[in-house]
Design a protein that fits this description.
Blueprint (H helix, E strand, L loop, with lengths): L13 H17 L14 E6 L5 H12 L3 E6 L11 H10 L4 E6 L4 H8 L3 E7 L5 H15 L6 E5 L6 H13 L2 E5 L15 E3 L2 H5 L4 E4 L15 H8 L3 H4 L7 E3 L12 H4 L6 H19 L12
Parallel strand pairs: 1-2, 1-3, 3-4, 5-6, 5-8, 6-7, 8-9
Helix pairs in contact: 1-5, 1-11, 2-11, 5-6, 5-11
Amino acid sequence: MKHKHLLGLENYSQDEILNIIEHAARFRKVLQRDVKKLPTLRGITIANLFFEPSTRTRISFELAEKRLSADTVNFSASSSSILKGESLRDTVENIEAMKVDMAVIRHSSPGAPHYIARTCNSVVINAGDGAHEHPTQALLDLYTIHEKFGSFRGLKITLVGDALHSRVIRSNVFALKTLGAKITLCCPETLMPLGVRNWGIKVTNDIEEALQGANVVNVMRLQLERQKSGYLPSLREYALVWGINKERVALMDSDPLIMHPGPMNKGVEITQEVAYSDQAVILDQVTNGVAIRMAVLYLLAPGRGEYNPENQ
């Protein structure tokens, strides 16, 4: 890897992204074996610093670390010295003084992992910073797409949902543009980020137009916990105008891929019928998330040598 940290995908090259996907495919095979544990990161200590609630991402990282035999330390802001007035920098410097090699960080403030990467020597992996980026979620989305299509060049990929508050959409856009996909973003005008029409992608409020002939739709959750004011008249109206249902899936390519990073608001952004259809790969994304995070940890781990998990 050319980068020491994984803070976002905006500056990652096509070769770097495909390298992570290639390694994830190897680790995915390991997850299908009876013995899923590897000695790859034995002796490496990883701190999971979650200053914001998380279930899927936190468990996925913890499982990836244990599969690679790393030593792990878990931090939760709700039971830490932060409640006593300790600053973010104080917390990180104290953890680093305990000789931690890598830090996985989720924080509600955009740019927090970048700040930590500048102030400590540990390798930093962004597990989601505010509404900025969520690179490992985007990477697992990419891996899931790559499993089916084998390439991104010319693929029509539609992103639907709360773009204003979604860090997943931003990371997906950065990476998919680098890989040559044709991207359409669709959501209500009130949930469009400032300057979105300068992102170099197609932007529309019309869900039928956005889905026409698409190979992939990645449906994003409405970030209701981050919405400080009324961006929508009602959830019922959102479901009627922008929700993904069977009739709208029929507008897509003949063999489409339906994705969602979870957790789903079924009946709002996606119907239960579509979420559990043969075209949906939502649970595959969860499994692929462990493989992607294993690949990221392996490639960024300090002092590791070349290693082929298939030989272990």
